[in-house]
Amino acid sequence: MARAASRPRSWPRPRAAKAREGDRRERHTLALPLRLLATACAFVFMVAFAVVLARLTLQPSPASEALTHTNLHPGRSLRAYLDQPALRDAVKQIGGNILLGVPFGVLVPVVAPRTRGVLRVLLLTAVVMLLVECAQGVLVTGRAFDVDDVILNTGGALIGYLLLGRRMSRTVHARGGRT
Known about the structure:
Blueprint: H1 2-5, H2 15-27, H3 32-57, H4 76-83, H5 87-111, H6 118-139, H7 147-172
Helix pairs in contact: 3-5, 4-5, 5-7, 6-7
Keywords: Membrane, Transmembrane, Transmembrane helix
Transmembrane segments: 34-54, 94-112, 119-138, 150-168
InterPro entries: Teicoplanin_resist-assoc, VanZ-like
């Protein structure tokens, strides 16, 4: 008994303490029917988000064809937005690109729990947004590839993940224990 009391804090906790932590973690996880419903709703919202993303980014814009240019240098478009006399246009461009990424950071970890984690969400978002920008630049009239859009969309996904996605994913999907 005296030995257990003098044990350093770095040693593993007794099994009873670990079991209590596991019980506490499982209490925060939804029951299976609610988990399935939450996942289905997140999937429906993800499809709706994909439709909105496609309409916003892959719709031809012949009126702005002369204004479009490919940007492969990070920060170049951001500086151009901020140098415009109308601050409203800069806020619309930058804020819109950030907001476009937020649903991705919230929904992806709920729909696909294996993507949970900051690096995984960032990597998946960057790849998807890179593909969208490539399609936009190659296939759509009046649109161009812009690396700053990829960066802003990915930043928005990070914000969405940190504010809501991580918590929602942990609530809907338990780590380890339950299947």
